[in-house]
């Protein structure tokens, strides 16, 4: 869901509150005259170099607005999802927080916990709204109301270890179809190489396989009908076929030992340590595999290649149909005008260009992608630019209750514990209950 940024198991210490801007030394009179506004920003970011960029942005804003102090509050990803609903209804709610858009954001908006940003976005001839890519803004807008400020866009693709591919005699450019991919898995196994780093402990990393196979087998029309509970819904033959192909992959035992218990950081570490040849991951995989590798460095940048999820022969889905994130900052009811003003600053083309240059994001701000220097990130941005259908992560788009079932079913089918048809039926039943 990118979505799913770095995920880890909940820990007891949920908050690591980092105060970025330090108060200036006002005299007694100045302190009394100028009340300080604290802006609370809740995030799931774990890469130290990325946090440093944010700290610099917050410090620059504070220098121009001495009466505003920005606090970064961190919640681990799994804890974030577990605690956020309660937090949003409490006095401890942040001013704004990381959002994956989709059905989860829609549900949060329906609780009354979020601010409708539409009028602020449309003020002054809509200059604020026009500073973002239209697709980014549309994905965070429901029934004409915008509930989050666009931040980043992303796409999931295959990353591979060039040395291991070379050792097995494989060329990534030859992987055009799903059958080619299965053949690649077999070739790697024959060469004594673990084909894929898989993370089943948190389930969502494996739902990418099912999602992409649904997209390739059914195309947008089939998924949109299933989402609306029309026609055969999730029992569409193309969706059942996707599950059968997922089961076929599972039978090859392509993942590292113990993959069903592996967290996402551990999975990135398996790839970063060179213990598996392939990873299906986010646009920022290069930085994240390095951080989670045993030596803290991981694979060298020039040893990592990238290729899109292949097509399924006979399926209407195109190789240019992409699955990925659309992330924003959802603004709570309690957020101050200062929080809104800081958000405008944080997501402006100028600041997003800085984040792009640091290899953090594919920006949602118009024109900011020209800051991208990292070749793999640039490839992801180019892939998004040429996308014929960009689909938000299924578990986010379908909402929390159906999303959980999608993640469960993906793992069960892959591990041979459930048939494709039974899995489709479970998702269909969950959809019907909504």
Automatic annotation (TrEMBL):
GO CC terms in record: periplasmic space
Localization: Periplasm
Superkingdom classification of source: Bacteria
Pfam families linked: SBP_bac_1
Chaperone in keyword set: no
Keyword Lipoprotein: no
InterPro entries per the UniProt record, alphabetical: Bact_solute-bd_prot1, SBP
UniProt signal peptide: none
Record's keyword terms, sorted: Periplasm
UniProt family annotation: Belongs to the bacterial solute-binding protein 1 family.
Protein name: Carbohydrate ABC transporter substrate-binding protein
Source organism of this protein record: Rhizobium straminoryzae
Lineage of producing organism: Bacteria, Pseudomonadati, Pseudomonadota, Alphaproteobacteria, Hyphomicrobiales
